[in-house]
Amino acid sequence: MALPKQNRLRSSRDFGKVHRKGKRASALALSVRALKQTSVGQKPVLRADRSSIDEQGVGEQLSAPSSCFGISISKKVSKRAVVRNRIKRQLRAIIRDRLADIHPGWQVVIVVRASAVECDFADFLRELDYLLKRLSVISKS
């Protein structure tokens, strides 16, 4: 199952902005860069969990922008696409499971390092949780 479209970081411009301006945290197999999105110029996302009232008193369902994730994995990690795709699938599964815990309004790029080839799902889960908590993308509890 894929990551929902509103949670995907797709354009190279967005990747570049997160790399230039984002906060960085690193572990053995992963490096994460995270940038808090600004609400200026962004359209609100309609959602049933938060409401806002406009000037006429009409209630509208609004929330902060969704957090977006991108995964960057180089051929230096592995020449075999099968290995790179397996790592990306595992990371997307972890992100999808954690979406409820992730604070809204973040743009996150996960950079996979060469040592990730030897890691299994539990290692990725532990490292990604640690890095996202360190960057305050998810709560520390």
From TrEMBL:
<dbReference type="GO" id="GO:0030677">
    <property type="term" value="C:ribonuclease P complex"/>
</dbReference>
<keyword id="KW-0819">tRNA processing</keyword>
<dbReference type="GO" id="GO:0004526">
    <property type="term" value="F:ribonuclease P activity"/>
</dbReference>
<dbReference type="GO" id="GO:0000049">
    <property type="term" value="F:tRNA binding"/>
</dbReference>
<dbReference type="Pfam" id="PF00825">
    <property type="entry name" value="Ribonuclease_P"/>
</dbReference>
<keyword id="KW-0255">Endonuclease</keyword>
<keyword id="KW-0378">Hydrolase</keyword>
<dbReference type="InterPro" id="IPR020539">
    <property type="entry name" value="RNase_P_CS"/>
</dbReference>
<dbReference type="GO" id="GO:0001682">
    <property type="term" value="P:tRNA 5'-leader removal"/>
</dbReference>
<dbReference type="InterPro" id="IPR000100">
    <property type="entry name" value="RNase_P"/>
</dbReference>
<comment type="function">
    <text>RNaseP catalyzes the removal of the 5'-leader sequence from pre-tRNA to produce the mature 5'-terminus. It can also cleave other RNA substrates such as 4.5S RNA. The protein component plays an auxiliary but essential role in vivo by binding to the 5'-leader sequence and broadening the substrate specificity of the ribozyme.</text>
</comment>
<feature type="region of interest" description="Disordered">
    <location>
        <begin position="1"/>
        <end position="22"/>
    </location>
</feature>
<comment type="similarity">
    <text>Belongs to the RnpA family.</text>
</comment>
<dbReference type="GO" id="GO:0042781">
    <property type="term" value="F:3'-tRNA processing endoribonuclease activity"/>
</dbReference>
<dbReference type="InterPro" id="IPR014721">
    <property type="entry name" value="Ribsml_uS5_D2-typ_fold_subgr"/>
</dbReference>
<keyword id="KW-0540">Nuclease</keyword>
<keyword id="KW-0694">RNA-binding</keyword>
<protein>
    <recommendedName>
        <fullName>Ribonuclease P protein component</fullName>
        <ecNumber>3.1.26.5</ecNumber>
    </recommendedName>
</protein>
<dbReference type="InterPro" id="IPR020568">
    <property type="entry name" value="Ribosomal_Su5_D2-typ_SF"/>
</dbReference>
<comment type="subunit">
    <text>Consists of a catalytic RNA component (M1 or rnpB) and a protein subunit.</text>
</comment>
